[in-house]
Design brief:
The protein is mostly helical. The chain has twelve helices and two strands, in the order H-H-E-E-H-H-H-H-H-H-H-H-H-H. Strands 1-2 form a two-stranded antiparallel sheet. Strand 1 and strand 2 form a beta hairpin. The longest helix is centred in the middle third of the chain and has 36 residues. The two termini are 35 Å apart.
Length: 272
């Protein structure tokens, strides 16, 4: 443990410093996402009002508000930009400096992102959850916060982040072959945002499509933690979905190792 701390905690500090160094960029991105949540709020409000029913697919409008904000903040804390880091370092040649360091390359990326995650949890996650719970109390007249669901949500969100990290790491290693991931990355982000239920809850999909998407790794990134937080899953569903997250985590972890062994042979430094 001491060796890990000595080798990798400097990467964590670097991640914190990097995120705080560009505070205006960080704040603009945050308020942009917050604005997106309010836009979607009015979109779904119009949908529910036009439907003539107070509920849709077991979701009320109040549930939809909670889903929008919790799925958005979950996306913040579980997203990974390791794909962009790997791609940029391969493109400008700086990956050669990372490879000669006496550390595990993948862990150096992971611990750097954990530093950024600390900032996100402190400045975004805690205020957002407090705001959502205040909203639920004002609407319902009583405290709806469930500590058990919240702890299970944190567990599920932790697995979701690790799945996201190793999935993006696998995708980032494509840069060894195609050299530039900019276009691929835009496509990947759009697909993941839709297939993970961040845009439309998977519960609103046709039943067959919903069942397929729930088994895919993308649902584990956002939909599963949010449904646990909202208490939409019973005990059996929670156990099944967390085990499913563990399966996808192990799958992408092993896959990243296999791709790394193959990809490192194709290293071609373009910038340095």
């Amino acid at each position: 443990m001491h060796k890990v701390k000595k080798l990798y905690f400097p990467f964590t500090r670097a991640g914190i410093q990097e995120l705080l160094a560009y505070r205006m960029n960080f704040l603009c991105f945050f308020f942009g996402e917050l604005f997106y949540c309010f836009v979607m709020y009015y979109v779904w409000k119009a949908v529910f009002e036009s439907s003539g029913s107070g509920t849709f697919m077991d979701f009320s409008m109040n549930d939809m508000v909670v889903y929008l904000f919790i799925s958005n903040v979950t996306g913040f804390i579980t997203s990974s930009n390791v794909c962009e880091q790997v791609g940029d370092e391969i493109k400008d040649g700086s990956i050669s400096m990372r490879l000669i360091k006496p550390v595990n390359c993948n862990l150096s990326y992971l611990f750097k992102e954990l530093g950024q995650l600390v900032v996100l949890l402190t400045l975004i996650f805690v205020p957002m959850v407090l705001g959502v719970e205040i909203y639920r109390y004002c609407v319902n007249g009583f405290i709806m916060f469930n500590i058990v669901n919240f702890l299970l949500y944190l567990l599920s969100a932790s697995f979701a982040y690790l799945i996201s990290f190793y999935l993006n790491l696998c995708f980032g290693f494509m840069a060894f072959f195609v050299k530039n991931l900019w276009g691929f990355n835009i496509l990947k982000k759009s697909l993941i945002k839709f297939l993970s239920g961040a845009v439309i809850p998977l519960a609103f999909m046709p039943n067959i499509i919903k069942q397929i998407l729930e088994l895919m790794p993308f649902a584990s990134l956002s939909y599963t933690p949010v449904m646990i937080y909202m208490g939409k899953y019973d005990t059996q569903q929670i156990v099944f979905n967390i085990l499913l997250q563990l399966f996808w985590l192990m799958f992408f972890y092993v896959l990243s190792k296999l791709i790394w062994k193959k990809a490192i042979k194709y290293l071609c430094v373009q910038g340095g």
